[in-house]
Amino acid sequence: MTTDHASSQRVVVRLDGVRKEYGDTKALDGMSLEIRAGDAVAVMGPSGCGKSTLLNMVAGLDRPASGTVEVNGQDLGELNETGLALFRRRHIGMIFQFFNLLDDLPALDNVALAGQLTGTSARQARRRALELLDELGVAGRKDTYPAALSGGERQRVAVARALMNRPALLLADEPTGALDSRSGEQVMDLLIDLNQIGQTLLIVTHDPQLATRCAGRLIEVADGRVARESTREPSA
Ligand SMILES: Nc1ncnc2c1ncn2[C@@H]1O[C@H](COP(=O)(O)OP(=O)(O)OP(=O)(O)O)[C@@H](O)[C@H]1O
After folding, report:
1. Contact criterion met (CB below 8 Å) for 167 and 13
2. Which residues pair with 226 in a beta bridge?
3. Which residues line ligand 1 (CB under 6 A)?
4. Signal peptide location in the record (predicted)?
5. Considering the entire predicted model, what is its pTM?
6. Structural domain boundaries in the chain
7. ipTM of this complex > 0.90?
8. CATH number of 3-231
9. Is 185 left (phi over 0), alpha (psi -120 to 50) or beta?
10. Are 46 and 203 in contact, with CB atoms under 8 Å apart?
11. What is the pLDDT of residues 6-41, one digit of tens each?
């Protein structure tokens, strides 16, 4: 893919002059960035620099004091809380360090529920959930409850759940942070595969290996702003 082609891709995330303070702390201090369809972006930076705040803004879990956040062409500032929740379910998939699966539902239901919450019928949602678990290599664990899954299996189920509604954007917050190195590498390979089939990724991490392996763009944040940005050619 040439640079010209890449720059013509649709904008999936646009932050413009986003500010957020907690008391005297400037968590985001006029942050602007753009992520285009098919990008795999890693956000790195020291503890407290504003990474989680950025992720929360993009996910519509928090609102800026000023500036705008646009995801998939929607200005999130125009949505009320119900609208934001609906938008998030439909357009954004999220995976977390500690998986955030529902303990009292087996793997298949954890995934299918994400579809049912956006109005997909139970039967259709279960069919798609099973396909996703199969693609991610955990279909054999469909009836297993999260507590009996390994960390790597839990994260695969969480990825399946995040993909259920074919999100425009997959957000990942330290997705390998709680995994042993082998499971972590498998999740990295999975993220690379997803990006290669066109999934837009935004990954927040402290792990340079995760960032360099999975992301073609690295954004370094310091003091609530983009301090440095670099790109590399995707590995063949
Ligand atoms: N709810 C909150 N109340 C008060 N201060 C907050 C809150 N959330 C974040 N902060 C402060 O805002 C700044 C940015 O926090 P943020 O969590 O975004 O950083 P981070 O880069 O994600 O850190 P880490 O890498 O440690 O997770 C920090 O100084 C933090 O203490």
Report:
1. no
2. 221
3. 22, 25, 27, 45, 47-53
4. none
5. 0.93
6. 3-231
7. yes
8. 3.40.50.300
9. alpha
10. no
11. 557 899 999 999 999 999 999 999 999 999 999 999
pLDDT in tens, 197-214: 999 999 999 999 999 999
Measured CA to CA, the distance from residue 187 to residue 156 in angstroms comes to 7
Please state the φ and ψ torsions of residue 183, each to the nearest 5 degrees: -65, -35
pLDDT tens sequence across 41-72: 999 999 999 999 999 999 999 999 999 999 99
CB-CB contact of 161 with 101 (8 Å):
yes
For the beta sheet containing 169-173, the strands, ordered from the edge strand earlier in sequence to the opposite edge, are 92-95, 169-173, 200-204, 40-44, 217-222, 225-231
Nearest CA to ligand 1 atom 28: 48
**CA 209 to centroid of ligand 1, rounded, Å:** 23
The pair of three-digit structure tokens given for residue 189, joined into one six-digit string: 């390979």
Which amino acid appears at position 232 of this protein? R
The token pair that represents 88 in the structure block:
């998030």
236 C-alpha to ligand 1 centroid (Å): 36
The amino acid occupying position 162 is: A
Residue with tokens 């929360």: 56
Instruction: Report d(CA 168, CA 179) in Å as an integer.
Output: 26
Tokens of 140: 């054999």
For residue 168, what are the β-bridge partners?
none
Q: Choose one of 51, 96, 97, 220 to mutate for the ligand 1 pocket test, by most ligand atoms within 8 angstroms of C-beta.
A: 51
**In this structure, what token pair is assigned to residue 128?**
């798609």
The residue whose CB lies within 8 Å of the most ligand 1 atoms, and thus the one to mutate among 49, 173, 174, 221, is 49
Token code pair at residue 43: 């956000």
